[in-house]
Amino acid sequence: MIESLTPLLASALGAAIPLVLAGLGELIAERAGVLNLGLEGMMLLGALASFMTVANGGGLFEAVTLGMAAGLLASLVFGFVTITLQANQVAAGLSLTILGSGLSAFLGRSYVGIGAPSSFAPLPIPLLKDIPLLGPSLFSFDLLGYTALIALVAVTWFLSRSRAGLTLKAVGESPVVARSLGLPVTRVRYMAVAFGGLMSGLAGAYYSVAQFKMWQEGLTSGNGWIALALVVFATWRPLRVAVGALLFGSVTALGLYFQAIGMHVSTFALASLPYIATVIVLVIISSDQETVRRHAPAWLGKPFYDDS
Amino acid sequence: MKFWKTKLALLGALCLLAVSGTGFAADPVKMAWVYFGPPGDGGWTFAHDLGMKMVQKELGGKVIASTVENVPESADAERVIRDLASKGNQYIFTTSFGYMEQTLKAAKSFPKVEFYHNTGYKSAENVHTYNSRMYEPAYLAGIIAGRMTKSNVLGYVASFPIPEVVRNINAYTMGARSVNPKVTTKVVWVSSWFDPGKERQAAETLIGQGADMLMQNTDSSATLQAAADKGVYAFGWNSDMSKVAPKAHLASVTQIWGPYYVMVAKAAVEGKPFKDNVWGGMKEGMNGLVSLNSSIPASVVKEVDAKKADIVSGKFKVWSGPVKLQDGSVKLAAGETFTDKDIDSIKFYVEGVDGQLPK
């Protein structure tokens, strides 16, 4: 019984890593007041760019770099449209998702049906990996998995302890006040959006060269939307994004696990478990309106006209 | 530029033909395909697209083929089908089960257009069905799995509990147990046709439960990739997936639509629309078990080839007795065989499948 929990936990963590990566990026963008619904599109572009790199003989470092560059490029286009041209963020984000899905499908046609020639392998940490139950799952990530953990710590520190983090939050809360204090609102928003793009690209790279090791149209299968929901779910706090991602991953893994051990539960009920869990958590979160209001960036989704 | 020149040249030729009014060739037949997914799915739609391309290759100038991708199985499908028919397509293939009612509805308004619906069970005067007996290659795959397994536990990543999928699980298990009665099959349902993340998690769960030979009934190759990562074997499904993970890939159960599409197209070119419902298998060349891994012992390959020959000659039928249910009771006695109607309504697990069939 216990030993079968290890693959269960590993499976849940594997599903959670890309959600944490993309979720943290979106969290930073939203904290600066920019709602980017284009996560799915940026992730797909990142996934394809990384896969194309390894398929054409490139190394893993190049693959991740190009994947992140693809995400960055897409996010800068989004940034130009929403921050400089002040277009509606929801519409621009949706267009970015559609563009990313379509473009990656078109450019990736000849990469379908082949395995990645090189990919990330698990790097178990000596000693720690021998801890029963937790060791083989928690301390045997690949490099990108550890990156997600480091990013989690870094983003948490950045938001709560750094001056730059305060600036970012100020821009998201009230760009008018931030501007009057002499803070570079437009530049901060651009940087936040760019960070979101980099992280989405990284999450995409995780899918194509670490987890699935292949390219297929729509490879991310809606996980960009889940990462997006996690940010709200987590009331814009990084640690909660990670907890939510893990919860989502484990509920799915648990549903499949129950079936494999032959428990007589309706598969339709099991398939809906993650969504039921999401609804329950959202109900609990929103029952405390004060907290939600305190943590939601007040200018989320609103353009700011910098007339200086 | 070159492309445009060719096009212009063609256009010119067509004009000449039209002006002279004595074109020796009849107008090309317009055929259209409605795809559920993208051809880039590497599975279901990819297999249909290969078939469509075979028509283009073999009947080049006589057929104008067009496709519509990513058509949802909703009212949208009917709109797409109607649109294709009103644009002058005389032959329309709708390539997913969920287009059944939409195809029938659209067909009523276009009595002169012939419709071909894939995997459905309702036909009409101008709606004909075609399907592939995937349980035949699945049975052969089971033989390989039964011979190669070390744990005697097989795993199956399944999509939805419809007869098509349930009978494939059964056939895989029956094939394995025909050579190794100790085998059991564990099944995990992912409630989706295409969700690489969930398919991978399901495969990992099965491997965690001791399964070392994985089969899938879903459209992505995530199951195969998970098997490769964990050092077990898996089969490809719908299309040849050997290139995804050459070491872990035992063989692929493939759909082969090309010959059927070419047959329908040839009849169409001759002006005699093909009107039969076709449920073909290995005999008709509508599916196959391809790209066998070199690590499969020669004796097993021989065994599979012999069984395949028997299926093709009709000497062996997968759905012939004895077939036992999970509780050991006899569903089909020795010497009896299921009719196609029986096969199409299989809603039970055979002996050797673990767990309970979702209702």
In short:
By secondary structure, chain A is mostly helical.
**Structural domain tally of chain B:** 2
- Poorly predicted runs of 5 or more residues of chain A: none
Topology pattern of chain A, helix = H, strand = E: HHHHHHHHHHHHH
Strand content of chain B: 15-25%
Enumerate how many helices of chain A there are, as a single number: 13
- Mean pLDDT score of chain A: 89
Oligomer: heterodimer
Biggest β-sheet strands, sense, barrel of chain A: none
Percent of residues in β-strands of chain A: under 5%
Q: By CATH's scheme, which homologous superfamily of the largest domain in chain B applies?
A: Response regulator
What number of structural domains do the residues of chain A give?
A: 1
By secondary-structure content and strand pairing, the structural class of chain A works out as mainly alpha
Spatial strand arrangement across the major sheet of chain B: 2-1-3-4-5-11
The CATH class of the largest domain in chain B is identified as Alpha Beta
